[in-house]
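Quiz preparation item.
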């Protein structure tokens, strides 16, 4: 039932505990996205990333991919999107990434940020997150860690 609901709504937030909307260690925030060919084209225009691996069907097949892969950094953009959606004004200061499995257009990708450490710095908060992206079947496609400076621990109401 939960999976059926997830498929019908492309953007959801889940909080692992507490009915309060205040970020605490252990909270998990999630959002899902399906990347399209037009997303790859727009990403390429914006970043000047014209790697033929993402445009010439023969290139990815020659190196073992089943199809044109979505750029890993485009997928990783889910992490700051999730954080900024809940904490407008957040400053993203660090991200490590490990790319584990390819993602192809049309696959639903779920980005997760798990609050692992929060400390107060004067009137702001330094939050560390474990970051992961999964595709259908729970296949891990990206994992890493992120650090952000949050203006508040109060999560934006949706």
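Solution:
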């Amino acid at each position: 039932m939960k999976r059926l609901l997830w498929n019908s709504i492309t953007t959801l937030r889940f909080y692992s505990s507490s009915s309060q909307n205040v970020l605490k260690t252990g909270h998990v925030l999630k959002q899902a996205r399906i990347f399209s060919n037009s997303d790859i084209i727009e990403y390429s225009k914006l970043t000047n990333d014209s790697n033929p691996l993402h445009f010439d069907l023969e290139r990815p097949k020659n190196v073992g991919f089943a199809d044109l892969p979505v750029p890993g950094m485009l997928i990783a953009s889910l992490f700051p999107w999730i954080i900024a959606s809940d904490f407008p004004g957040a400053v993203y200061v660090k991200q490590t990434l490990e790319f584990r499995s390819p993602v192809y257009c049309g696959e639903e990708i779920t980005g997760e940020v798990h609050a692992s450490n929060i400390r107060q710095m004067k009137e702001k908060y330094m939050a560390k997150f474990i970051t992961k992206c999964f595709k259908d079947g729970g296949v891990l496609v990206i994992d890493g860690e992120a650090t952000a400076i949050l203006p508040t621990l109060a999560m934006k109401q949706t």
